């Protein structure tokens, strides 16, 4: 049976076909690329990680430990009296609180570009802070003494941020696998930094042995081993172990060093892949 459509309806159907057929053909030809995971040439990656130091050392840390040990030795030998707070006597044979330099918190953000399928160039911003707790040396007026005061050790521990810095680095990462969900790598970095540190001189100032905060600058080197795991082409998790050495200079000292190593965990994003798949 043949259906005769009115001229107007035939015209509407014809216009619809003219508009829609090219659209269907274009969409039939558009094929999205296969998802590519991991590191590759042209990828643009941002990683955000953080953690704690497992090791902290160097001449700056050792100097603070030696200073604390010296005060503790003088207390144990009776060379210097121990007070609880101010003039309140500290009970004899009571141990002093433990001196310690605590693990520091670290934060890191880096931007990396794939120069080749295995080599990446990056810039980074890093922070670290290290806390300490130790005995403090004070003085109190005493007219019976030739110099007019007596020095003592305060039993209540002094807690403070011993060191913190902000460093800006550049470096290279070598990625052992390319275009793989697992992305193990090794990285080398050099950096410049500015820091603040507590630096005790042991010099009396107005009946107080001050713990001044001294600012300064420095240079650093860093080596890291890590792996990224890409859950999607755009996003993954990052795990890294690292070691770092820094050479410091301030108005309080000509040169000191600080070393630290630790473990960090965080996330990685591939901006080049966002919206592509």
What can be said about this structure in brief?
The chain is mostly beta strands and 277 residues long. Helices cover 15% and strands 53% of the residues.
CATH architecture descriptor text: Beta Barrel
Q: Would you give the CATH topology?
A: Porin
The percentage helix is: 10-25%
Strand content: over 45%
What are the key terms here?
2 helices; 53% strand; Porin; OMP/PagP_B-barrel; single chain; Outer membrane protein beta-barrel domain-containing protein; 10 strands
Structure, explained:
With 277 residues, the chain is mainly beta. The chain has two helices and ten strands, in the order αβαβββββββββ. The protein has helices at residues 7-29, 59-76, and strands at residues 44-57, 82-83, 100-101, 105-114, 119-141, 149-175, 182-200, 211-230, 235-250, 256-270. Strand 5 and strand 6 (149-175) form a beta hairpin. The model has no long low-confidence stretch (mean pLDDT 84).
């Amino acid at each position: 049976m043949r259906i005769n459509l009115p001229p107007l309806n035939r015209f509407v159907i014809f216009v619809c076909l003219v508009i829609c057929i090219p659209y269907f053909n274009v969409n039939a030809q558009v094929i999205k690329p296969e998802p590519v995971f991991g590191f590759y040439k042209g990828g643009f990656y941002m990683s955000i990680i953080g953690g704690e130091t497992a090791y902290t050392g160097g001449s700056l840390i050792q100097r603070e430990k030696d200073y604390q040990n010296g005060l503790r030795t003088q207390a144990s030998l009776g060379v210097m009296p121990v007070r609880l707070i101010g003039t309140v006597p500290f009970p004899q044979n009571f141990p002093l609180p433990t001196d310690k330099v605590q693990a520091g918190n670290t934060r890191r953000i880096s931007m990396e570009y794939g120069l080749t399928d295995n080599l990446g160039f990056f810039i980074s911003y890093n922070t670290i802070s290290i806390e300490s707790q130790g005995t403090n040396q004070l003085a109190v007026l005493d007219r019976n003494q030739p110099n007019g005061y007596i020095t003592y050790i305060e039993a209540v521990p002094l807690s403070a941020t011993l060191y913190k810095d902000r460093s800006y680095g550049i470096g290279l990462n070598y990625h052992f696998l390319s275009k793989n969900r697992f992305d193990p790598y090794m990285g080398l970095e050099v950096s410049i930094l500015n820091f603040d540190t507590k630096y005790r001189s042991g010099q009396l100032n107005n009946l107080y042995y001050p713990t001044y905060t001294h600012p300064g600058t420095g240079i650093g080197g860093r080596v890291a081993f890590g792996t990224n795991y890409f859950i999607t082409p755009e996003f993954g998790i990052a795990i890294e172990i690292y070691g770092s050495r820094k050479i410091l200079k301030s108005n309080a000292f000509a040169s000191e060093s600080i070393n630290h190593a630790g473990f960090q965990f965080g996330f990685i994003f591939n901006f080049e892949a966002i919206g592509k798949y």
